[in-house]
Inverse folding.
């Protein structure tokens, strides 16, 4: 259940968790301000909940100063309310998925019936179904499939040979990617990191150079999420260099190159290099124009629409609400885009509107995101912190009702 401090019924904010971490170090607010590179007034505003501590770059700066994991500030993972039956169902499979991930690399020791049941065509169908549930924001259904699916994929990789082995590892990679996204959406970042390691390892076993490179996209994201920007940048630069040696500009290679430029843009945005971030975004836009369509190679959605979506996300990362709002007005999401992707976009739009002082419109965007993907929205650290800040300063009807569903009231 959420922890309530003396906040008039509002759950503990990121700023209050920050204050507790600071107290653990026996630092003054001035010391934290100096160590993290912020003003004393900013630290006070964050700790008192008057300013939303939702931007990753700022959370990471405080986490590095206090030598803690960012989730110690954001409070993830969050426990769904008892009344949230869908949320309870979504997290019910986390332990089973975790066990399957821990079994990776160990002898499968399959029973005879498991060996006899190996059917790559059927496994392909099940992997597609699990990913389809995830993209449709049906996290409970996706999670329920994953433990047995991952076990069956691990068995297949152990018992088949030759070209079938490479195919089995490609399916296992997709299964691990699905598990990674499922865990990440629910706020289980440590388990998602474990899944990412499995993605990287299994992708190498496919003997497909582009598949292995695609896994590096996720690996770079792990370092980015803990503020290790140099390491993330090295992985991204290495991938882009290798992609530059690909002789044929296949759609898969172009899509992958564009996706890495987007990741580079995010890394630059969070590390305080807005001009570099904008340059990488423009290069991604050029790749999307070369591609001429939206694709989903290696589970990495890339194309003109996705570049436009990131055009909103990046200024949000940098706290540039007006730029993000202006760009959001030009984004047109096709109906074929998944509810998961739609909801994430409206979360970014909501945060942009909040930064721009348009609180009523921000609430509308968050409610729209919640309708599309209830659990992913309720578990989103930025939504929870932003809505909590709005409630502390402006309690009213729908806003409080959303706060209750999020578990921040």
């Amino acid at each position: 259940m959420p922890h309530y401090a003396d906040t008039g019924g509002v759950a503990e904010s990121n700023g209050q968790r920050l204050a507790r971490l600071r107290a653990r170090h026996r630092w003054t607010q001035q010391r934290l301000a100096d160590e993290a590179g912020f003003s004393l007034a900013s630290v006070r505003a964050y700790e008192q909940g008057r300013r939303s501590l939702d931007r990753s770059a700022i959370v990471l700066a405080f986490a590095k100063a206090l030598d803690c994991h960012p989730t110690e500030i954001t409070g993830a993972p969050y426990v769904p309310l008892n009344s949230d039956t869908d949320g309870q169902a979504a997290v019910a499979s986390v332990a089973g998925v975790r066990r399957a991930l821990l079994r990776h690399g160990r002898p499968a020791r399959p029973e005879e019936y498991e060996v006899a049941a190996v059917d790559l065509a059927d496994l392909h169908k099940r992997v597609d179904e699990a990913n389809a549930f995830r993209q449709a924001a049906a996290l409970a259904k996706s999670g329920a499939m994953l433990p047995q699916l991952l076990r069956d994929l691990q068995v297949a990789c152990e018992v088949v040979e030759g070209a079938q082995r490479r195919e089995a590892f490609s399916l296992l990679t997709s299964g691990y990617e699905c598990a990674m996204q499922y865990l990440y959406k629910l706020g289980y970042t440590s388990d998602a990191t474990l899944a990412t390691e499995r993605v990287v390892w299994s992708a190498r076993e496919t003997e497909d150079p582009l598949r292995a490179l695609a896994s590096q996209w996720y690996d770079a994201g792990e370092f980015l999420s803990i503020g290790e920007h140099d390491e993330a940048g090295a992985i991204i630069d290495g991938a882009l260099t290798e992609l530059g040696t690909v002789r044929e500009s296949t759609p898969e290679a172009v899509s992958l190159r564009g996706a890495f430029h987007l990741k580079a843009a995010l890394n630059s945005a969070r590390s305080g290099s807005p001009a570099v971030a904008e340059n990488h975004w423009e290069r991604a836009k050029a790749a999307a124009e070369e591609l001429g369509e939206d694709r989903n190679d290696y589970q990495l959605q890339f194309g003109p629409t996705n570049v436009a979506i990131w055009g909103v996300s990046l200024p949000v990362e940098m706290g540039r609400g007006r730029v993000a709002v202006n760009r959001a007005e030009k984004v047109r999401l096709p109906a074929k885009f998944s509810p998961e992707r739609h909801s994430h976009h409206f979360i970014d739009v909501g945060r942009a509107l909040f930064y721009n002082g348009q609180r009523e419109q921000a609430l509308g965007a968050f409610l729209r995101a919640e309708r599309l993907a209830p659990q992913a929205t309720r578990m989103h650290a930025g939504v929870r912190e932003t809505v909590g800040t709005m409630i502390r300063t402006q309690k009213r009807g729908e806003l409080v009702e959303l706060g209750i569903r999020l578990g921040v009231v």
